[in-house]
Structure formats: structure tokens, C-alpha cells
Amino acid sequence: MPQTARNATQIGAAIRRARRQARLTQAALGAKTGLRQATISELERGEGDVRLSTLLDVLAALGLELVIDERGRASAGRLDDIF
Predict the structure, then answer these.
(1) CATH number listed for the domain at residues 8-82
(2) How far apart are CA 83 and CA 74, in angstroms?
(3) Poorest-pLDDT segment among 19-23, 26-30, 75-79
(4) Pick from 81, 59, 66, 63: which is nearest to 15 by CA?
(5) Nearest CA to 3 among 59, 61, 53?
(6) What does the alpha-carbon distance between residue 72 and residue 4 come to, in Å, rounded to a whole number?
(7) 3-state secondary structure (DSSP) of residue 50
(8) C-alpha to C-alpha distance for 49 and 43, rounded to whole angstroms
(9) In the chain, helix, strand, coil percent, each to 5?
(10) Which positions ≥6 away from 83 have C-beta within 8 Å?
């Protein structure tokens, strides 16, 4: 199911959900992508400066992709329900 994310925290939450659904630890996802566990943790919290290539590598390891679309008119409350 598509997920809308408009900031780093929401992107991180989506990655965390996908990782948990895949039954991977942060360390296992890090090993799969060649990243440190701390980097995965920062990404999931929406903290730090993550390179776009790092984000794309993590998404690919989780079987996800980035889709760019026009910004919708979803209300803030609706977004909070999703995340």
C-alpha cells in the first residue's frame, strides 16, 4: 500500500515499519546494505544528514522504491493517522 511521507521523520517511520515487517534488526539491515546500525537508526528517526544514495540503498534492500508525485491536499490529521 502506498505511503505518503512529507518529511524525514515520516520517511524514517515508513522504513522502520518495512524493516520490522521484514523481520530484520537494524544491524541485519545495516549488514545487508553495508551501513552501520547507527546509520539505520538515524535514518529511522529522521535525524542526521543521509545521502540520497544511502536512502535508495535502504529502500531497495527492503523491496521499496521512491515515487515522486505532486503534493496532495491531505490534511495534517489524515497524515498523522497514517504515521
Answers:
(1) 1.10.260.40
(2) 13
(3) 75-79
(4) 59
(5) 59
(6) 9
(7) coil
(8) 9
(9) 60, 0, 40
(10) 5, 9, 10, 13, 14
How far apart CA 61 and CA 78 sit, in angstroms, is 28
User: pTM of the predicted model, to two decimals?
Assistant: 0.81
Helix axis angle for 52-61 and 26-33, nearest 10°, is 110
Per residue in 26-72, pLDDT tens?
A: 999 999 999 999 999 999 999 988 899 999 999 999 999 999 888 87
d(CA 37, CA 26): 5
Amino acid at position 73, single letter: R
The residue among 64, 80, 81, 68 whose CA lies nearest residue 15 is 64
Non-local CB neighbours of 75 within 8 Å, separated by 6+ positions:
none
